[in-house]
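Deviation from plan, reported transparently: 3-isopropylmalic acid complex.
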Amino acid sequence: MKTYNIGIIAGDGIGPEVTNEALKVLRTVAAGYDFNFVEYPYSGAHYLKTKELVPDKVIEEWKTLDAIFLGAIGHPAVEVGLVERSVILGLRFGLDLYINLRPIKLYSENLCPLKGKTPADINFAVVRENTEGEYTQIGGILKKGSPDEVATSTSIYTRVGIERAVRYAFELARSRASASNKPGHLTLVDKANAIRPQEIWTRVFAEVGKDYPDIKQDHAYVDAFAMLMIQKPEYYDTIVTTNLYGDILTDLGSMLQGGIGIAASANLHPGKTSMFEPIHGSAPDIAGKGIACPLAAIMAAGMMLDYLGESDSANRIESSVEHLLASGQITSLDATSGLSTTQIGDMVVGQVRKSK
Ligand code: IPM
Ligand code: MG
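Because the crystal trials were delayed, the predicted structure below was used instead.
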């Protein structure tokens, strides 16, 4: 029997609460394989106790696992961004996880804040480039605190980095098309009108696009796209965009799904150890109350199984969550659902069992 070695970083705030539920669902769905969960303590809370961030040798160890699952990182008493950069960006850069795949999918009309939009209208996938752009930490602050203070932040776009993200997105558009029997469609989202160096995205997209004549190819500037994804989400299927724009647009997109409580993501280096996480943060305001929605973590666990090749299990998780939402058994994706974190986890476990 195959055993998957999965690194677990439960993290801060609601991270451990939602991770528990995701692990429950993983243990339930496993059939013909099992898991060896390896826990890692890295978090803001751990840093406060020990002053320890992620050591380089642990990044090397992570590369030997089958996948990493991350709950949430962020602690209000720790310097802004310190632990996020060590753990989240440490994983993305250390494991060269160059794709951040974030599906935007509505499972029940009742959850959507847009009038008249149904699950048939909201189903697109954002491919966020995950190792470049504003996130490379190239820059700094000179003469800090003085009147002549200067801050710089350089955006990096490499041909290799863009090409591998764009090619992945074209392949995804193709596989989504064949799965849905609809024509393929990929949209490049950038801001190349104002930030001219982003024109490299325009050219690489056109060059790679020659290999995909079956895929409809178009483009939107990110400001317009923020409007268009609300105005006509049904027009979009697969999006490819920069690291920062992908970060922002997927928080907006989570609202189209009904809430950040269901938005999941896969940080991928195809063929290598990859990392799976809900896109929400540690939510210190509701931490410890047992009311966080664990569905984003559960959906991220589903994406992990899909990546590991256990697509039957992944489908069972997705269809179980879909059933609970579409049947109105879970009526909201935030802390006001009236259901506890554990209750929602138990409901998914129950539904997954029935789906055998
Ligand atoms: C996300 C988060 C991270 C990001 C932060 C916590 C560094 O917002 O995963 O979307 O900006 O990528
Ligand atoms: Mg974000």
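The pocket of 3-isopropylmalic acid (ligand 1) is lined by residues 84, 88, 247, 279 (CB under 6 Å). We consider this an acceptable substitute for the interim report.
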